[in-house]
Amino acid sequence: MKKLITAGIALGLIGSVSLVQAQATDTADLIKVATENTSKWVETRTTISKESNQWRVDKELIQQKIDFYKSEISMLSDEIKKLSDEAEKGKGDRAAFATKIEELQRATRVVTGILPKYENQVKELVSYFPLPLQETAGKLAKNIPSNPETTRLGAGQRLAIIVGILNEVDRFNREVTVTKEVREVEGQTREFDIMYLGLGQAFYADSQGQLAGYATPAKGQWVWTSSNENAPQILRAIKVGQGKIKPAEFVELPLKITNIKSR
After folding, report:
1. What's the 3-state SS for 199-250?
2. Concatenated DSSP letters for 23-39?
3. Tens of pLDDT, residues 66-120
4. The dihedral of CA 105, 106, 107, 108: what is its sign?
5. Angle at 184 between CA 182 and CA 185, to 5 degrees
6. Listed residue (210, 213, 205, 216) closest to 239, CA to CA
7. Contact 217, 199 (CB under 8 A)
């Protein structure tokens, strides 16, 4: 009987141990599952936090870009308006320029039409130039076109040549010019001092004051006339013109009025 009770108690203890072990196994599994779930939850929250932070950063960058583009659009709109206004103003300016160009073209046609007349007159005037003026204005005159119809020079260039020649003539005609030239006088070739009183008249004398005279304008070459009886005062006048006699003084010279007819 006692053995049966003991056996039963033993079986009961064994059953209780088995139950405790089963319960312990279930608790460990639950803890493991709970731990895994907690780990996953923490991981998920971390991911959500990172994504949220990244979103805020991205949102800020996007907003900055939006603001930048808005500013650019505003600036471009203002620039477009400014250019449009300038374009409208430019239409009026273009019209004014077109009118000015047309006026200049008409003036050019007028100048081109009368240039040949003045060029021919200047060419004839050149033939009366003395040697010193030939060295300046005469060289400019060589640029006058021989044929106005085929010349490549523009109206402005042709007009500038004429003006340049006339300026040289005007300068020469307002000054006393003293030069040295080699000329044949009375069968003798000598170097003479020559004083030009503009284009009106010239006087010459040799260094000894023996041969002297005057010259008057003529086409092709000036006319040289001996006046040896006036050599002393002519030579003295030339020295005054050269600045060798100071202060300057009045000297009586033989003057001749020359009447030149040109077409």
Report:
1. CCEEEEECCCCCCEEEEECCCCCCEEEECHHHHHHHHHHHHHHHCCCCCCCC
2. HHHHHHHHHHHHHHHHH
3. 666 667 677 777 777 777 667 666 666 777 777 888 777 777 777 778 888 989 9
4. positive
5. 120
6. 205
7. yes
Q: What is the pTM of this model?
A: 0.57
**Sign, Cα dihedral of 35, 37, 43, 48:** negative
- DSSP bridge pairs for 185: 188
Instruction: Map out the domains of the chain as residue ranges.
Output: 114-171, 177-242
- For residues 176, 180, 182, 184, the Cα torsion angle rounded to the nearest 10 degrees is 40
CA distance 145 to 149: 9
Q: Phi then psi for 64, rounded to 5 degrees?
A: -65, -40
